[in-house]
Specification:
transferase, single chain, 11 helices, protein serine/threonine kinase activity, ATP-binding, non-specific serine/threonine protein kinase, EC 2.7.11.1, alpha+beta
């Protein structure tokens, strides 16, 4: 069911892709459609944020042809394949930065192309959701959706490329360098800004799948939220989102959502709290490789922080003690408040953002130094951090930890 293409349409003419060199197998059967304008989006139905029965048109996005996508990805070359997810295969590609036309002379920009598996119905719904939300929202902490392809049954998304990868990779895949404390706080603040923006938007959007693998980092380690496949518009009036099919990721999903299928903005706050714990501990939300008492990150942290003096026991050893004790305690406390068993006791993301932005190192505008030094910690200049294992009497007395 694969097809070979010997010719690709490129702006300005026809270019031969010679067999034995550039002629590659594409990942899924991609039938060649009739040619039409690359800006025509009138045939693309997407679900309305306010009502699942309405139709909207993402007219400001570029509608790529199949041929344009093939040129951008070099015919879906295996050399440009970045990975695979539940959505489908993910490829790197190149476009002209100004015109978004592939293979055109001028300044280039890297992009990511997501190719939906043709038999994946849930993936189709997620594809529509990404266009609905990412396609109409613009914020520095959201990954930018550049366009899509919907020709002849194909479902593709074209997004900006994030060269530093996911937060998950930096935290859990053992590299030579680890993220510094300053960088971790920076990522937390920017991710909180993204969530707070969604919650405050006109449609009161619930992200629905906040986790470290969905936080991507650009060249300067600026954090952006990606993958809006499970996002939903906030309920109107007294209505709530309830479903019998609970979606999400184990370890990040709020308990009331698991139990009742009721999705609210406080579910996002819970997931954010779990990611905060991952940032400060360097541990996964669920890690079955650890001993029984430490497999569930939240339960383990709760057991350790019944006494504030045990803070150092949960801190990521890769930080080498280079962090502010007071800041770390505030972040740990905030994380546990976000993960309160009862949703009504969790802070709103606007409140979370305010607390994080007022952490002393952030308020003092202490920016991480992104250098190519031989330090084992990325974004850590000359250290003025005090070591976390000597907390003493400096615990902020106005902080409370929920057991």
């Amino acid at each position: 069911m694969y097809m070979r293409l010997s010719k690709l349409i490129i702006s300005g003419g026809l270019k031969d892709i010679y067999r034995g060199s550039c002629n590659k197998l594409v990942p899924y059967p991609l039938p060649l459609p009739p040619q039409h304008s690359s800006t025509d989006t009138q045939n693309l139905p997407t679900p309305s944020p306010g009502n699942g029965n309405e139709m909207i048109f993402a007219t400001h996005l570029k509608s790529f042809t199949i041929l344009e996508v093939l040129v951008a990805t070099r015919n879906f070359s295996p050399d440009y394949r970045l990975g695979e997810g539940g959505f489908g295969l993910i490829y790197k590609g190149w476009l002209n930065k100004e015109t978004l036309i592939p293979a055109q002379p001028g300044p280039r920009m890297d992009v990511v192309v997501k190719a939906l598996k043709p038999t994946c119905f849930q993936g189709h719904r997620e594809w529509l959701s990404e266009i609905t939300y990412l396609g109409r929202l613009d914020h520095p902490n959201l990954v930018k959706l550049l366009g899509f392809c919907s020709e002849a049954g194909n479902r593709l998304l074209v997004c900006e490329f994030m060269p530093q990868g996911s937060l998950e990779n930096h935290l859990f895949r053992r590299r030579e360098q680890s993220l510094s404390w300053a960088l971790r706080i920076k990522v937390a603040v920017e991710a909180a800004r993204g969530l707070a923006f969604l919650h405050a938007s006109e449609s009161k959007i619930i992200y629905g799948d906040f986790k470290s693998s969905n936080i991507l980092l650009d060249m300067d380690y600026n954090a952006k939220l990606s993958d809006f496949g499970l996002a939903k518009a906030g309920p109107m009036g007294d209505l709530t989102h309830e479903t019998t099919q609970v979606m999400g990721t184990q370890g990040y999903t709020a308990p009331e959502y698991m139990a009742t299928g009721r999705l609210t903005k406080k579910c996002d706050a819970y997931s954010f709290g779990i990611v905060l714990l991952e940032l400060i501990t360097g541990r996964r939300a669920i890690d079955n490789k650890r001993c029984c008492e430490e497999r569930n990150l939240l339960e383990w942290v709760r057991s350790q922080l019944r006494e504030a003096k045990k803070l150092c026991r949960i801190m990521d050893i890769r930080l080498e003690g280079r962090y502010s004790r007071k800041d770390a305690f505030v972040v740990a406390t905030l994380a546990l408040q976000c993960c309160h068993p009862e949703a009504k006791h969790r802070p709103h993301m606007s409140e979370v953002l305010s607390i994080l932005e007022n952490i002393p190192s952030i308020r003092a505008n202490r920016q991480p130094e992104l250098s190519s030094s031989k330090s084992k910690i990325i974004g850590d200049g000359p250290s003025s951090w005090s070591h976390g294992c000597h907390y003493g009497s400096q615990v902020p007395m106005d902080c409370k930890i929920h057991p």
